[in-house]
Amino acid sequence: MRRQAAIVKCSGQVYFAFMNQIANNLQAVDARLAKAARLASRKPETARLIAVSKTHPKEAVEAALEAGQRVFGENRVQEAAGKFPALREKWPEIELHLIGPLQTNKVADAVALFDVIQTLDRPKLAEALAKEIQKQGRAPGLYLEVNIGREPQKAGLLPEETGEFLTFCRSLSLQISGLMCLPPQEDNPAPHFKNLAAMAASLHLPHLSMGMSADFETAIAYGATEVRVGTAIFGERK
Ligand SMILES: *Cc1c(COP(=O)(O)O)cnc(C)c1O
To answer: Ligand 1: which residue has its CA nearest to atom 13?
Structure first.
């Protein structure tokens, strides 16, 4: 059971309703996740929920924290840097994932802020990360982003270059532990999830980040260890 907000910082019906809505949404997502895990003969805790809070205010993240959620995803370094350091003072156990593209000029901030960077996808970024991890003595978890639908405009490695890139990352002493993907919006995601899972298995990478609000049950059926859910928890983004 997700705990309802016990503490309401600003009094008033609207804020209270808002916090309850997020707690209720989390409970509904938990139920969907548990059911999908059961159908796949998996334990629910093997598919972790990443609450994607991009574009939503700090108060929304607080509501999720009050409801017991601890793992969050953001797609911009700057935006996350504006919300999470303050939240971590109260909830130091927050686990924060970067799920959006990372520019090399933001690598220092990203290494300092995130626990996992899911979007490593090019040699220049690998080199910058290796240098910064060495410098800061702090090593976030790293996943490779795969352009699983081979979309020309999309970030991520092509499937056939992923193995070689993994070797390159290891030559820089980077510890890669997973793969992440964002299938083409118009496609049935199932074959893409299946392909990413097969790649992770053949590369012996334990973490598999795939599935969003609309399709995370399918991702769990194909072995997702992390699902990234925004809208179903926090509502529509503007
Ligand atoms: C925004 C985003 C999500 C969450 O999408 P929803 O459909 O709102 O659940 C997941 N993954 C990535 C990479 C995103 O940018």
So the answer is: 99
